[in-house]
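By convention, each integer encodes one residue's backbone shape. The lines below illustrate.
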Amino acid sequence: MSVTTEDPRPGEARADRLMRMGEPPRNRGEALRKLVWILPWLIFLSSPVQDLVSGAHTMAATAAGWAGLAAFTGTYLALVYRNMGRPFSGRVVGWLVSALGVLAVVLCLTLGAQWIGLFVYVSVACGATNPLRIAYWTIPLTTAVMLLVAQHTGAQGEWTLFLLVTLVGFAMTGVRQLVRTTVDLRKARATVAQLAANEERLRLARDLHDLLGHSLSLITLKSELAGRMLPGRPDEAAQQVADIEQVSRQALVDVREAVTGYRRPRLHAELAGAHVALTAADVIADVPAEPDLHGVPEESESALAWALREAITNVVRHSGATRCAVGLVRRQTLDGPFLELCVEDNGSGGTAGVAKGPGNGLTGLAERLEKVGGQLEAGRVRRGFRLVARAPLASRADVGSPA
């Protein structure tokens, strides 16, 4: 049996690299990554820049052009960047979008047709920052103004720009709706998880009440009886005390069984949870939907469920994988029939932690599987990391029997 461990730091770094749609940056690195995502779209500013460096304008016109271009770009970046997390108020957005439109018109009319591409950014700002009821008329208005300015300046390909400005603007309204839907789904998922946790607490409280209510009431009653009998009837009091001991022992057994039932994971539930966890972490998941668990002992199923939970946690948190496959097959070996769980991903596998010895999670899994007569193998493979857990399909009492 080979057991390897994984360094938690790559998983934490990967979690920090994830950019949350519609939410403000969590740190400076995420802020820079969001800014880098915006910067490539400034390619339409190449024509104004070429016009300014060509020397076709006077020194004063060139200086004014650079100042106007800087003001336009700064206003646009402020609008779009703030809209990705902490948007301006509606009044401020209206003033800034209007300023963008005015700057685009003034720069095009004063410096020439090469500045007509600025209207693309005006349309993007209208679609990305304005409410839908406002965006639906400001985008066509921006397109109409662009056509008038193009005819006045003699710009070529105005109808191509007409399609580009219109489509880009309305595409941004769709992106904004997608971001809003993603944020709403994230909030709804958190609410559902909280409601499920509350329902589980209530169910546990009800079950414990049903288990202990009668027993504790009986213990209280018999304790009172024993107290009244002690002075004159010690034999009967002793019988009551014996009954109290029996009831309390049975109550303890009931509580242990209830808690064991709550703590014991089921393989069906863990497979469903694995698919949800991998999908939420943007990992392509290949998980069996309806595995055949007929005849699998509870101890083996529980051990494999724990192994699956630990493996999926490692994939999501530490591996940096983009794909994960989960397999569940029955195998006949010299030691008898086994149910084999295989979890393989294309991530790093936390190789930094191999030299430090097995981690607590995998060591605990190995011990848990050994108790039920199973095995655990975990380590690097050619294209990632693989964890294989095997549990017997016959209970420990049946192992070695004549059957």
User: Anything to note?
Assistant: The chain is about 65% helix and 10% strand. The chain has a mean pLDDT of 78. Residues 158-229 form the longest helix (72 residues). The CA atoms of residues 240 and 398 lie 42 Å apart.
